[in-house]
Amino acid sequence: MRIAGTSERLRYWLSLAALVVVLPAAIVVNAWDSLSEWRRDQLSTPIAVERGAVQAYAGAQWQLTGLTRLPGATPEAILIVAEFDAAVDDPALLQAGPCTVALTDDKGRRWLPAFLPGRAVRQGRPAAADKPRCYGLARAEKGKTITMAETFTVPESAAGLALSLSIGRARPAYLVFR
Fold first, then answer.
1. If you average pLDDT over residues 2-28, what whole number do you get?
2. Sheet (strand 162-167) strand order
3. What is the value of pTM for the model shown?
4. Could you tell me if 53 and 25 lie in one domain?
5. Can you give the residue range of the structural domain that contains 152?
6. Are the C-beta atoms of 84 and 163 separated by less than 8 Å?
7. Order of strands across the sheet with 77-88?
8. Are residues 171 and 115 in the same domain?
9. What is the CB-side half-sphere exposure of residue 145 using CA atoms within 13 A?
């Protein structure tokens, strides 16, 4: 068995010390891009739009045309059908990122759209059930108006509802229809 010399021990301890410094630095460098992208995608600049008003955003003129309450599957829940229009000005800008919508109330609670419209929507607002959803912007053409609808399941007590809408390239700005 060979006993390590002083220079070998010194290199061993220097290697361990270098790992303590280099490993966290490598993690920070690799995570920086992800953190920057995450911060850029955070919605931080709301554009308030009064109900019925038209607002330019992300290559289109947007308007909320209705928030309809329908009975839900349980007495404690209701369905909200949000209907909105986008008159296309710049299809490339409009198609540049995913369209995301959410419904919020005056207590700060937030709901995402239901995957498919339910039977209550098909009975109560049949025209809305057949409208495309927000992701239907991929086929946007200049000068055309796209009418969309999203369905949300919210508690019956929800009040002061507002629809928020964001498009990828236009972030961190987003629309809030009150």
1. 83
2. 45-49, 173-177, 162-167, 99-104, 110-111
3. 0.72
4. no
5. 45-177
6. yes
7. 54-57, 60-71, 77-88, 145-155
8. yes
9. 11
